[in-house]
Design a protein that fits this description.
This protein is α+β, with helices and mostly antiparallel strands. It folds into three domains: 140 residues; 86 residues, no CATH class; 97 residues, no CATH class. The protein contains six helices and 14 strands. The strands form three sheets. Strands 1, 6, 7, 8, 13 and 14 form a six-stranded antiparallel beta sheet that branches. Strands 2-3-4-5 form a four-stranded antiparallel beta sheet, with no helix packed on it. The radius of gyration is 30 Å and the shape is elongated. The chain starts with a helix and ends with a helix.
Length: 335
């Protein structure tokens, strides 16, 4: 039994096992980021692979430290010892990256916020329970000369216990950092202000694109399909540009959940659906979509990345090797 355990431990802690685990982790990450981009890192199998790889590298590192001790006792040269230590540093770097990843998976938090101008949302609480809120002051899209978007900008304010803490502008690739929290610009959209009327009853609402409204006391439904700022029949349902040159709302009508028609309505124009039933798209209210992330394992992963790069540099260090030493050093590394 001890001999069998030794064989299993030796196979588990081998470099071949480590390479296999890294390949499986890379494959799982590639598939997960494609199929389940927001949740794959919380899957049990993914975390099990990280834990197994962590133990594999830890045992490999321990065994290599013992090997270095024996080699130095046998009089290994400085360069040979340095290159051996480079692999130790490289392994420790990967271990720290794995630790950072596990901490983020288990203790990190992520949330998506949709904010219209003037709206607030809670993003964090300190140890005393005081909330930190973010408020959208304004949202804008910068355009190239050909009217294509070049940047999305969210102008925000942070409040702690109703006291202004910070004002900032969040844009793509330029997140807001606040006490270990990062807030990223993710996307944007439009809210449509709609007024429906049925048999004298008027209802007002603000809806997302794609949402369906029921018209009171009827079998009619209106789907607010899409807002098009520069409508042109030649472009179909796509906007000719992002400038509001000819704003329209594309909508579809349903009666008893069966499509009865489709149209593109100007803002502020009352449209008769049937006798006594109307819909009017009053205006557009843009909103921003922000990604809020807290990554407590980031310092470990950052330190691991630095050690990993240092290990790679030291492993390739040959400038001080003497002629004829290279083969001997290389042999010592792979033993």
């Amino acid at each position: 039994m001890p001999e069998l355990f030794h064989k299993v431990l030796k196979a588990f802690s081998s470099m071949k096992a480590g390479v296999l685990l890294l390949a499986l982790l890379a494959l799982f990450s590639a598939l997960g980021s494609t199929l389940l981009p927001d949740s794959f890192n919380h899957l049990i199998l993914f975390n099990i692979l990280i834990i197994i790889l962590f133990f594999n590298l830890s045992i490999c590192t321990f065994n290599r430290c013992r090997r270095i001790k024996r080699l130095w006792g046998a009089g290994t040269g400085i360069i040979g010892g340095l290159r051996q230590w480079s692999l130790i540093i490289l392994h420790i770097g990967v271990i720290l990256i794995l630790i950072g990843g596990m901490i983020n998976n288990w203790f990190g938090e992520s949330a998506t916020l949709r904010l219209a101008e003037g709206e607030q949302a809670l993003i964090a609480q300190d140890k005393s329970g005081v909330g930190v809120n973010i408020q959208l002051e304004g949202f804008e899209i910068e355009l190239y000369e050909n009217s294509m978007p070049s940047q999305y900008l969210s102008h925000v304010s942070l409040y702690k216990n109703s006291k202004l803490e910070q004002q900032s502008t969040i844009s793509v690739n330029h997140p807001l950092r606040y006490e270990g929290i990062k807030i990223y610009q993710q996307s944007y959209g439009n809210l449509v202000e709609v007024e429906t009327e049925g048999q004298g009853q008027v209802d007002s609402s603000t809806v997302l694109e794609g949402q369906i409204l029921e018209i009171a006391d009827s079998k009619w439904q209106v789907k607010v399909f899409k807002y098009v700022p520069d409508f042109d029949l030649a472009y179909g349902m796509e906007s000719k540009s992002l400038q509001p040159n000819n704003p329209r709302v594309i909508y579809s009508l349903y009666q008893d959940k069966v499509m009865a028609g489709i149209g593109a309505a100007p803002l502020g124009e009352k449209i008769e659906i049937a006798s006594g039933y109307y819909v009017e798209f009053k205006g557009i209210k843009p909103y921003t979509v922000l990604k809020v992330k807290e990554d407590p394992g980031l310092p470990y992963a950052g330190a691991g990345g630095i050690l990993f790069m240092l290990g790679v540099v030291l492993a390739e260090l040959k400038i001080f090797s003497k002629p004829g030493q290279g083969n001997g050093n290389r042999k010592a590394v792979v033993e």
